[in-house]
């Protein structure tokens, strides 16, 4: 969503890094580029003026003129102001002192209210709540049925006494739903209301009547982040006609410029509380202004990445897997497949890599990452027998042909996977033995013993020998083609150029289980 804005701001700051001091002309030129970047991203003009004025005022102050690195200080100022524009601190849901907590969703038709109701219900259920979805959109065809399907997928209850399609009183349904929630001991009620293609008096009156009937603890305005400046005018109309406490952005995974997301909070004064980033029920989370600002400025979003990993990986399984990694030989293809499936559950690989700092400069390479490569690897491993997964060394020519036929790939792709798996095993063993890794305990052979060893050992495996001739390594420790990796494009044996480690990354700070 913010790729264009991120690219422009990153290029602006890269030109500042070579300057030891910033003159007024440098600050004016930088602010001019920031203004153009924001306007091109479809940010509202009043928001742009206020933002640039605050950045310019702070950039000319003592915090930049006296800084050891003025360019970094300007980046910090822009980051601080972006966080402020996006809402400052993360806004949490207000829960009622006496359950149930009533949440009302409002917005135009097509903004994604019904889908978002299911996402919010699932998100609340995972936090230990017992939400009840209420179908008050009785105008749009099949809206009630859609909400019922969403409730089933989210594994939550739904209250839909009216068939909809123009039949029923939404105000009466909303009022009755609160009593129903008390009887069934639901602590959260999520009311899905009707929308229109545009702002009209009937829409505003119905939304206001539902609000007055249920006295919601939170009124959330759902806005499509892809509709541009119309999002700002629509938000203002709902603010005057119904009023709302927070904003929910949908379709943040789209390719629109996304400046409306930066404008809505500034114009309405209401915080952005949630963001929807995909079609799946899992593609939803609380909105963190500081993390979004970091993504826009290509600083990464490590906290969100860690949270997703914590949701996906079980601590006991992770500790068990760490022990196998430490042993090297104990790591099998079954373990490899299990780890790969865990990574897949975290989301698309492209999105995960995009949360790393500096990945905005490698967007073309990230766009070439295809999750279907992982599916082909999984198909190859699942076509093996349990014995072959435990001991890949027994996989001979006839076995490779059978595996290739069963998984729908070529024999070459099977060969590549097996060879790369062996190399990954060796690499893990070297890391745990501390060979060549700064800060790691040296449990392997001494350096003198390694130097005393002469000659070149030739492997009897023709696959390894071929790889050894192609690369710069030995036949026993072949180097893969440039850009190749353990999870590559199996059809070609190549991967797009991988990301470099961020500056300051020190592998010695990582400790394995049992290492002090």
From TrEMBL:
Record's keyword annotation contains Ribonucleoprotein: yes
InterPro entries: AAA+_ATPase (IPR003593), P-loop_NTPase (IPR027417), Signal_recog_part_SRP54_M_sf (IPR036891), Signal_recog_particl_SRP54_hlx (IPR013822), Signal_recog_particle_SRP54_M (IPR004125), SRP (IPR004780), SRP54 (IPR022941), SRP54_GTPase_dom (IPR000897)
Record SUPFAM superfamilies: P-loop containing nucleoside triphosphate hydrolases (SSF52540), Signal peptide-binding domain (SSF47446)
Chain intervals for the UniProt region annotation (Disordered): 433-516
Protein name per the record: Signal recognition particle protein
Principal subcellular localization: cytoplasm
EC number: 3.6.5.4
Subunit text: Part of the signal recognition particle protein translocation system, which is composed of SRP and FtsY.
SMART domains the UniProt entry points to: AAA, SRP54, SRP54_N
